[in-house]
Amino acid sequence: VMEAVLNFKYSGGAGKMEGYYRELSLGVHVDVEPSVFFTRVSTLPATSTRQCHLLLDIFNPTEHELTVSAKNSKDLVLHPSECQ
């Protein structure tokens, strides 16, 4: 996790007056999460010719349990050094 506050001073735009500036403070919070590896990718036909099913083998190379989420799907829990 990284957090920072960025402070800006700027002048210009509507209402600009010589010798004056605006101040802006922007808080930033970044969560960096471990990555997974896709070890195999393949497809299967679906009931419609305009769609297919995407199959992924996912490997968790970390020492931590990870949860992989996808839209309209159940969460997949990957244990350390596990492939599903």
From TrEMBL:
InterPro entries xref list: Trs120_TRAPPC9
Name of the protein described by the UniProt record: Trafficking protein particle complex subunit 9
Organism annotation: Characodon lateralis
Higher taxonomy: Eukaryota, Metazoa, Chordata, Craniata, Vertebrata
